[in-house]
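Predict structure. Chain length: 155.
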Amino acid sequence: MPEVGPVLFLVLTSSVALAIILAMIVVALLLPRHSKRLAAAAASARHPSVRLLSRLLFARRQPDAITLDCLLVSVEDPAPGVVAPPGLPFTLQLLAPEPRMAQQVDDLLNAWAADSRELLFELRQEQGRVRTTIASGDSSVQLVLSGAAGLQLNP
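Prediction complete.
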């Protein structure tokens, strides 16, 4: 009859080794995802942003600005104390893009307004300016916010 001590020791050692290897695999698989979330959270903390799902009603271009009249549908992850009810009308004034891009941006915004398209507006504070990304499907425009009316998102 074989001795139980060495066999039991070998089984326990193998089980511990297997558990350590499995733990290392789990950490290796989860760490990159966690790191990406941490990096995204750090970037968001450096550049606070607000994401608004809104319906574009009218778009007007002046020589130095674009004015958008919108109707708020919802606010994504509103900060505590932010009150922005659905159906709230608001206006954004954005700095006009470079002259070579102005007509394309104007055409895109007017097409969206003609459809009363729901757009995602992301307003992000960067380098003392509020950069505004306006997106629908695969298309987006990024402009600098110069003014807003009817929308109070500060808690």
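Summary: The longest strand covers residues 49-61.
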